[in-house]
Here is the input.
Amino acid sequence: MNIALPKKGENSRHSSAHAPRRRPSRLSDIWQAPLHDFPIRDEILCQFVSFSQEMDVLEIGPGSGFTAYWLSHRVRHMTLLDVASETIDELSEELRAGTNFSFVTADVTISGLAARLEERFDAAFGLDVFEYLADPESTLRNLAEVLRPGGELFLTFPNTPPPRGDGVTYFDRAENLEELLKKAGFVKWQILVVRPRAFSAAVYRVLHDRPLAIVRDLRRGNPAVRPQTYENTWAFSQREQLSRFKIPLHLYWSALGQAIRLGGQVFKSDPPTTEILGKQIVVRAWK
Here is the structure.
């Protein structure tokens, strides 16, 4: 991979000098891509990680499958892993037209993941999944074991403790996370705090959050507590009803994506300070 590696343990600023990478889009995506909410997390992935046709990639917690769908056109093979068998069953049906997918039901926190997968990867990533994993030490060790030498792990997650956050894993200091990365077997890593540019955040708030506020209020139960597995989300339970609106929704998301990218990268990044609670964290680690 054509990535400049930081020094061991270094938390260097991600350079904003290079041109931002864009998520590839095709006209057929409007009706072929899995139904999804606007994947702003994908903008972080595109901004930091380079993919190529020679890469085998593992995604943990693939959600609707949209990220895997567009990424499958850029890599050799995609393996999707989720703890919920219902999610994996839905994804294997949704993405059945793809020829470079594998689907695995497994718990990434339980030792022995490498033996279960029986293959190694050039990259593994999880977008807003890590905060839900109760054993981060075992998770990082498992993910290090499934990577090939030089392979990259990419994680992004809100480092927000309860009750404001709904996850179970968070870190008071970046050093605590670095220690786990070292114990897991990673030899290089980079930890960053990311936030959207003011312009991108304003566009996203006006064109995404406000229009969907009423829809999100329709979710049953306590709206302050989001479910920790995708098959329990409102989007999953209402997928059949929403499918009739796939084309207009995807057209709208495409326009929104163009809007938030006006002027450059969607996210800014900085090295972590002594206070990282309540921040969106990016972890890049190399084996």
Observations:
- The chain is about 35% helix and 20% strand.
- Residues 29-286 form a domain with the Rossmann fold fold (CATH 3.40.50.150).
- Confidence is low (pLDDT under 50) at residues 1-20, 221-225.
- Strands lie at 56-60, 77-82, 101-105, 121-127, 147-159, 188-196, 267-270, 279-286.
